[in-house]
Here is the input.
Amino acid sequence: MNVRSFQLSDYRPVTELLQSVLSEDCYEQTMEAFGRQLSWDSELVLVASVDGVIAGMIIGTIDDNKGYYYRVAVHADYQRQGIGKKLIRSLRQRFEQRNVSRIMITADEHNEPILSLYESLGYAASDFFRSFQKLSIVAG
Here is the structure.
């Protein structure tokens, strides 16, 4: 598995991945945030590839010197293989390199089912940022 920054050639496989694993409402919100984050700072959008296939992706952002995990998605065929954890750890390294003061997990209704994944990596309920605002508003 290889984790790296998003590249323009990843756009189609990433959008197909997101469409396959997210609900329609979540997909629309995520695509809006995805596009905005690419225009702000594409280094905080990471993809995981397995044998050249995009198996997962994560979107992060930095606002007011805080790093936020926004959305992580792993293709159904690659789930439960450590890809989500690797993406989260890799994005954490990016946050740490930028000396963010705190790392938070956006805990919207779409992320609720995977908060236990973050907890398994040592994050606590106090690290969950609960907001009904979209990334495009939070990080604007």
Summary: Residues 24-41 form the longest helix (18 residues). The longest strand covers residues 53-63. DSSP finds five helices and six strands in the chain. The radius of gyration is 14 Å.
